[in-house]
Amino acid sequence: MSANAEASAGYDVKDLALADAGRSSIDWAYQSMPVLQSVRKHFIRTQPFAGYRIAACLHVTPETANLMITLRDGGASVVLCASSPFTTDDGVAACLVRDYGIATFAVKDESDEMYHRHIMAAIDLRPHMTIDSGCDLVATLHSSRQDAIGDVIGGTEETATGVTRLQVMAREGVLQYPVVAVNDAATKHLFDNQYGTGQSTIEGILRATNVLLAGLKVVVAGYGWCGRGIAARARGLGANVIVTEVDPVKALEALMDGHRVMSMGEAAAIGDIFITATGNRSVINREHFDKFKDGAILCNAGHSNVEIDLGALQRAASSRKEARPSVDEYAMRDGRRLYVVDGGRLVNVASAEGHPAAVMDVTFANQAFAVEYILKHHRSLEKRVHPMPPELDRQVARMKLESMGVKIDKLSLEQEKYLSSWAEGA
Ligand SMILES: NC(=O)c1ccc[n+]([C@@H]2O[C@H](COP(=O)([O-])OP(=O)(O)OC[C@H]3O[C@@H](n4cnc5c(N)ncnc54)[C@H](O)[C@@H]3O)[C@@H](O)[C@H]2O)c1
Questions:
Q1: What is the whole-number distance in angstroms between the Cα of residue 83 and the centre of ligand 1?
Q2: Taking the model in full, what pTM does it have?
Q3: Could you give the domains of the chain?
Q4: In angstroms, what is the span from residue 257 Cα to ligand 1's centroid?
């Protein structure tokens, strides 16, 4: 049966015969996800989602599979579609369908048309809750699929870009249900954005290009959670890091952390490798293509494939060819060559394996708790973006520490009293 024909059977994956490979990856990741393992045991006991339907739009990876299985084991009917057309692990998708009975709609390198059709298929489940990564599922529900929105009691959002879109929706008064910004949990952006993106972005660049980072000038655009992680790891490998920013506080922080800070216009002329991590579009654009050195390498670890203006690069170049798998060479009219990794898509996902499972353990424990929180509190939550409740954030951190065998101190009664009193001075 073709993948599309299978869609009518409640899933659309590349090939169910890939399920064995997917199973090995899911099991391998699970070993590094002790916090999610504890949450799963708790959900199996308490069955919080019995009778509820959850639609998730996430990168279809082994770690995501373990979150889906955790929610299913908590009693939910779960449907999963991809949050990017390019990042699906076809084996994982097949295994979720074959071994776990989880309706999955995702095929690696699916067309835009298929990507949107898969989101529609997830909405067809008429979910009570949404888990989104980038806000495409929520935006579709609020535009072309208003028919299904009445059933939704709340949702969660995984990424900074998604949270920004949701905040605009809330400001414009169109958001029709409460959403918890999992991205904003301290334990999410500390682990996932900073350490996960930091390590895996460098890994992706090295796998794709095989460059020696030591001694190179690496320009990081954006000094948010992802950018600072990337900058720290690049420096750890001996690179000379330059940061570009639009926020003066972040720029100052980068400077105090020991990086050089300048505008992209200045950095373009001296950098060897450029990594965008801003969530913004056209951060590298026509103005910069004219300045880059021969051999400059351009990569993106921020949002989708919009941070480098590839349309403008295409127009400015005389030709393009594949220099290596995952690396395109653009020949400029003056003879310089510019290299774009992974077509400007997320280099840590396309050329590496995304975040290690130990990182996603923390992020997805937050997701699982956030979905349970929505279920318990949706009646009292306004239709806007809500922060991750700090007590859940701390609970996730506590569980991660416990899983690593690390004990920390507790405040004594005397200390608690001291910290909560204004009367006691020095
Ligand atoms: N690759 C991944 O696996 C991965 C993981 C997590 C987040 N992300 C994405 O990475 C992006 C950044 O996430 P974050 O958590 O670091 O966000 P953040 O908001 O903490 O940081 C973004 C930074 O970019 C800066 N910025 C915006 N426009 C800029 C411009 N034109 N030039 C220079 N700096 C600019 C902002 O001032 C901000 O400091 C988002 O799109 C997010 O969705 C990717």
A1: 17
A2: 0.85
A3: 3-188+355-403 (3.40.50.1480), 197-350 (3.40.50.720)
A4: 18
